[in-house]
Amino acid sequence: MSGVMCDLAIIGGGLSGGLIALAARRMQPERRILLIEAAPALGGAHLWSFVDSDVGEAEKALLQPLVNYGWREYSVVFPQYKRALPFPFYSLRSDRFDEALREAMPAESILTGRRATGVSADGVVLEDGTMIAAHGVIDARGPADLSLLDLHYRKFVGYELTLDGPHSVRRATLIDAAADPAEGFQYMMMLPIETDRLFIEDVRYEAWPDIDMTDHGNRIVNHAARFGWRIRSSARGQAGILPIALGGAFDDYWNSGGVGVAKAGLRAGLFHPVTGNSLADAARTALLVAGAQDWSGAALHKLLHDHAARAWAQRDYYRRFARHMLRGLPVAEGYMMLESLYRMDADLIARFHGMRLGLADRMALSLGEGPMPLKAMLGR
Ligand SMILES: Cc1cc2nc3c(=O)[nH]c(=O)nc-3n(C[C@H](O)[C@H](O)[C@H](O)COP(=O)(O)OP(=O)(O)OC[C@H]3O[C@@H](n4cnc5c(N)ncnc54)[C@H](O)[C@@H]3O)c2cc1C
């Protein structure tokens, strides 16, 4: 294969690239799309989760066929406080993501096991020398130069565990910080899958990006023991080190991923500054591209640069929140900011997750027992 032509070439068949391909195929089936992924499968090895209220109706329609598991509500548990929040919570596995993309797209539109070595606004060169000429290219190969940002990290290791007997967990537990608060900013996430099967993930926020798999594994075993569960087997492990952006100049980061080339996903800086999550952003970006008529390299660059730059600017409040939580407080107290956040009005919490806080919300978060001191909000 050499000298391939297409309307849109998407480099990176991970979360963001895959969703763009799916949405673009649905909305403009007559145009030729190529999704180029270095790994043998699309989506890597992930269990991606999101809260229903993070996304709008159109994004939900895009994500719905990919969902493996859903819960009617989720809970948070802190040493002094626990609560159920009335928002559905969903998870999708990357094997379903791969399957759904292959069902939706013509076989010749997906190139897996093919690494891009050269990317420009309207062309791609693959490792085997194949040249692809595209009306426009989107680079979704994961992070650009993260060293240009002021970062903290959210690190986690999770396993799907089969237990010796049934557990009694019914809701998705987004945060369980009830045990060992003195050990630092860490908590567990728990997702019940079957009566004797659940996914447990050990999460911690730290200033350095290394991950200690053994330590995370031991904490998961201890967590199960706390509930009196005996683990029969474990499967589908995943580990992640997500960037938490405390600051940085957007344009330097954008350009570090390739000057003049349209970008999506982590490469575009589109992730939640407090959680590092990017699924809702990836779905929004996918619909933005799929709805655009002009897929030329220059038009896509402008569309996605302006979208990402606007999002970056609007998220300054969240970077301040993360800065105060992770640097302004002693390490073992950071999670208390989350504890007081989760005592607020449920709809306000949903707007926090979905990055839709208004001025009144921000004031509410800074008054009384709210999590964000006024000084930190104003950046003093
Ligand atoms: C284990 C894990 C779990 C996560 N869970 C959640 C979650 O629950 N909710 C949430 O919102 N966020 C979650 N995140 C954060 C974020 O959503 C993911 O990191 C997401 O996958 C980022 O999407 P992306 O498209 O930018 O990058 P990726 O999904 O990493 O996709 C980049 C793709 O580009 C490919 N690639 C790289 N170089 C080349 C090349 N030269 N040529 C061709 N292909 C190339 C890679 O193989 C990869 O498939 C999680 C992250 C991890 C690591």
List the main descriptive attributes of the protein structure presented here.
binds flavin-adenine dinucleotide, CrtY, lycopene beta cyclase activity, 380 residues, 7-stranded mixed β-sheet, Lycopene cyclase, FAD/NAD(P)-binding domain, globular, alpha/beta, FAD/NAD-bd_sf
Low-pLDDT stretches: none
Largest beta-sheet details:
7 strands, mixed
Series of H and E elements: EHEEHEEEEHEEEEEEEEHEHEHHHHHHH
Task: Please give the CATH architecture of one domain.
Answer: 3-Layer(bba) Sandwich
What is the subunit arrangement here?
single chain
Helix/strand class: alpha/beta
**Ligand species:** flavin-adenine dinucleotide
Number of strands: 17
The CATH topology of one domain corresponds to FAD/NAD(P)-binding domain
CATH class of one domain: Alpha Beta
- Whole-number average pLDDT? 94
Helix content: 25-40%
- CATH superfamily placement of one domain: FAD/NAD(P)-binding domain
- Report how far the terminal alpha carbons are from each other: 58 Å
Shape: globular
Number of helices: 12
Strand content: 25-35%
Describe this structure in words.
This protein has helices spanning 15-27, 57-63, 94-104, 213-226, 250-256, 279-290, 297-314, 316-328, 334-341, 346-353, 359-366, 374-378; strands at 4-11, 33-37, 47-51, 69-71, 74-78, 81-85, 89-93, 110-112, 116-120, 123-126, 131-139, 149-163, 172-176, 186-194, 197-206, 231-248, 262-263. With 380 residues, it is of the alpha/beta class. Among the domains are: 4-44 and 92-147 and 248-314, FAD/NAD(P)-binding domain (3-Layer(bba) Sandwich); 316-378, no CATH class. Strands 1, 2, 8, 9, 10, 11 and 17 form a seven-stranded mixed β-sheet that branches. A seven-stranded mixed β-sheet has the order 6-5-13-14-15-12-16, with helices on both faces. It has a three-stranded antiparallel β-sheet with strand order 3-7-4. A hairpin with a 4-residue loop joins β10 and β11 (131-139). α1 (15-27) runs parallel beside α3. The structure holds flavin-adenine dinucleotide. InterPro entries: CrtY, FAD/NAD-bd_sf.
